[in-house]
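Quick one:
INPUT:
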């Protein structure tokens, strides 16, 4: 990767010890079935981020001053099972350091590893899955770590809430909890889905955001674009409310499949990431002294599930 710090922020805000936020790039594209190129997503995201204003008007904040450490990318060119395991270990390592951990993919199978890590640490975890696709297959093309299986494990082990869904196989109906699924065609005509979805969340929420949830008119550069998706303001209004009402413990953003002739998708992904951080940290004093040991954290709703002797 060309970038040395996230968004080109000054080194003083990019050191691991003093950063509240960690960003892990996972440029993996081993199982995608249509357009390849999600492995180029993190680099395009980082390049767009460098060209973005770091002051957020709406929250009147500069969230990067909380410190954003750009971790070494997980660059395994391996089977999805090996990649998922590596992502799981890396994610857990930084959660254990009491960081707010974020991940940029890569295809959606990376989220199997990220969700597994968060679910091991945070009790009663809600996974908020924003996506055009249900991703509930138990296995696909011989693997349980295919992108089409991204939230099957979460459906079995967490409080899974799915938003923006407009494409699925009939067999996924047997796994899907329709009461916790917000289909795009219903969302288009009734905005009560926002409050309803939030009402169904537990306190600790992890967000897995597949960019193909957006309408292809505002985000065409993704592997499997689907018509009828989310627009910008309804999306960030919803996210703002989730960050306000719940303890968002981390998030990933996946499936940016950059196109050299279409940079606005990269830029949208960069803005979405920064907006989510801005909502998370808008009420914190960016430069207050920061304690980076997990044990001394008292984050709201952070019920420790770690064995304290576990070595990371
Ligand atoms: Mn998808």
């Amino acid at each position: 990767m060309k970038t040395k710090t996230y968004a080109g922020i000054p080194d003083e805000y990019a050191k691991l010890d003093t950063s509240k936020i960690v960003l892990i790039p996972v440029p993996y594209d081993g199982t995608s079935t249509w357009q390849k190129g999600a492995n180029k997503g993190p680099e395009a995201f980082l390049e767009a981020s460098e060209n973005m204003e770091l002051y957020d008007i709406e929250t009147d904040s500069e969230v990067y001053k909380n410190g954003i450490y750009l971790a070494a990318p997980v660059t395994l060119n391996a089977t999805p099972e090996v990649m998922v395991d590596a992502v799981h270990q890396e994610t857990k390592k930084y959660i254990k350091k009491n960081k707010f951990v974020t991940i940029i993919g890569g295809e959606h199978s990376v989220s199997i590893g990220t969700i597994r890590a968060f679910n091991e640490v945070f009790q009663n975890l809600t996974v908020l899955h924003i996506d055009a696709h249900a991703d509930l297959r138990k296995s696909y093309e011989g693997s349980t770590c295919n992108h089409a299986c991204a939230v099957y494990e979460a459906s079995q082990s967490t409080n899974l809430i799915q938003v923006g869904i407009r494409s699925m196989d009939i067999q996924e109906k047997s796994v899907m909890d329709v009461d916790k699924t917000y289909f795009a065609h219903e969302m288009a005509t009734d905005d009560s889905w926002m409050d309803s979805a939030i009402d169904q969340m537990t306190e600790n929420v992890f967000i897995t955001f597949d960019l193909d949830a957006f309408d292809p008119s505002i985000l065409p550069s993704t592997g499997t674009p689907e018509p009828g998706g989310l627009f910008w303001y309804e999306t960030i209004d919803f996210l703002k409310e989730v960050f306000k009402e719940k303890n968002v413990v981390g998030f990933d953003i996946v499936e940016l499949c950059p196109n050299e002739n279409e940079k606005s998708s990269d830029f949208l992904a960069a803005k979405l990431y920064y907006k989510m951080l801005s909502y998370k940290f808008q009420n914190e004093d960016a430069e207050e002294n920061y304690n980076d040991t997990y044990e001394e954290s008292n984050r709201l709703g952070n019920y420790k599930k770690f064995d304290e002797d576990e070595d990371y």
